[in-house]
Amino acid sequence: MSTPLSGPGSAQQAPGRGPVRTGSPRTSRTARNHAPITAAGLAAKVILLGLVAGIAIWSAFPLVAAEKWVGLTVLVLTTTALFYLYLGRRHVPAKYLVPGTLFLIAFQVVPVLYTASTAFTNFGDGHRGSKDDAIVAIQSSSVKQVPGSTQYPLSVATKGDPATGALVFLITTPGTDTVSVGDAGGLRPLDPGAATVGPSGKVTAADGYTVLNFGQASARSKDITNLVVPTAGGALRSSGLSRAYEGKAVRAYDAGCDCVKDSDSGKTWTADGEVGAFVAVDGERLAQGWKVNVGLSNFTRVLTDERISGPFLGTLIWNFAFAIGSTGGTFILGMVIALALHSPRVRGTNLYRMLLILPYAMPSFAMLLVWRDMFNTDFGLINNLFGLSVDWFGQDWSARAAVILVQLWLGYPYMFLVATGALQAIPRELTEATSVDGASRWQSFRAVTLPLLLVALSPLLISSFAFNFNNFNAIYLTTEGAPFPADNPSNGATDLLITYTYRLAFGGQAAQFGFAAAISLFIFAIVAVVSAVSFRRTRQQEEVYA
């Protein structure tokens, strides 16, 4: 009797075995990998992809308006790739890797690259826009009222919150009901019927704008005075809170000499492309400049400017001392407490641990302010409790000791927790074996417990060192860098590089983002080198105790 041929996927009976399913292995794997999508999974995919599409469309309009075609191309390609990836059933590992990679690029790589690029520019207050923007700002800010200037009824309005929204001028052309709106970008007419004009000619309401009352306008009088609206014949400025005039700019740009001339004084400022500013023969610069590439000047300034390079080395040494002292001190104290509570003879360890981590549970910025008051010379708790009269923040070393003591109190609970976890992971058989061999407790701790603790906690110590090296709050909320020497009010005895940078870049009359970015790269390089060396030594320890 003949046996029928078995087709693909049919079951065959093998001698002594159950039915065997034959068929394509590839088909079986495909069936397993392409499991049907549940309704909840499909809904989540639709919502997330819809959100991606919405964000892409929302982002495309400003890119098109600004003619940022490279950015628009990247946006389109990224969105298309995401839809291709998540609408298909292939590339399963990439579905999990892509979100994290995109967030890494957006929140880590891009900010670092932007900071690095800013370090080679003069970007900051007075140097934010282009040269054309600077020329408009110079001419507009020099507007003066001249005899016969046209006067306009003025209403001040905002888009949004009256206290913080961007200001605009709503003016009415004399003798007509034509209303125009003006801001730093220029003057443009409003659509007929979009504004309501009162009997005095002032605008009382306008679509899309909030007209300020007298009290709201008075609160922002300085901003109103500084607002200049460029026009074809000059610029509009306010005269009080209810009138505006179209004045004439006394400073005008001359393209022939690439300079700005003042018609009142006859002085001339010539464009200097290396510094991004208009400079006179006597060295005077106009406040409004433009953003340019300055090469390595921000970096060389740190090394060649005596006002900066002088205290920079001292600040760097103290920065290392603060980071090492804070990290090492909290580690030693936390480890000692963890060892004490790790003993089986101690009772009530849970209660002790709960009490010991209280500083870790409190907001650090609030505790820093409390400690600042506790070190007050006159009414501080420290002096009153111990009967002292120490001016803690008035002397260099007492101020430094105070900030390290504060860090010790704030940081030891964290080290206590991680040391407790590491101790519980060390087998007791190891320490018991050393005791059998006749080793003392100190010898057992030094030969077994401490090396194993360091292997487990070294990455945490490195990250803690990096954090304390840039611990802005610890200094700024307690001493603000004080005490300061009489001859240098910009560099205090407790300043870290990060607080010193902040004061140099933002503590003066204008922000210097390019210079701050350059010093940030110095700090980044120092921390990166220290971390790399430390991680290398950590790997060597792991190989020894593996």
From TrEMBL:
GO biological process, one term: maltodextrin transmembrane transport
Topological type in the membrane: Multi-pass membrane protein
Region (Disordered): 1-32
SUPFAM superfamilies in the cross-refs: MalF N-terminal region-like, MetI-like
Localization terms from the record: Cell membrane
Assigned GO CC terms: maltose transport complex
Transmembrane parts of this sequence: 42-63, 69-87, 96-114, 316-339, 351-371, 401-426, 447-467, 513-535
Pfam family, one: BPD_transp_1
Molecular function GO labels: ABC-type maltose transporter activity
Gene3D superfamilies per record: MalF N-terminal region-like, MetI-like
Principal location listed in the UniProt entry: membrane
Annotated function: Part of the ABC transporter complex MalEFGK involved in maltose/maltodextrin import. Probably responsible for the translocation of the substrate across the membrane.
PANTHER family documented for this protein: MALTOSE/MALTODEXTRIN TRANSPORT SYSTEM PERMEASE PROTEIN MALF, MALTOSE_MALTODEXTRIN TRANSPORT SYSTEM PERMEASE PROTEIN MALF
Protein family membership: Belongs to the binding-protein-dependent transport system permease family. MalFG subfamily.
Protein name: Maltose/maltodextrin transport system permease protein
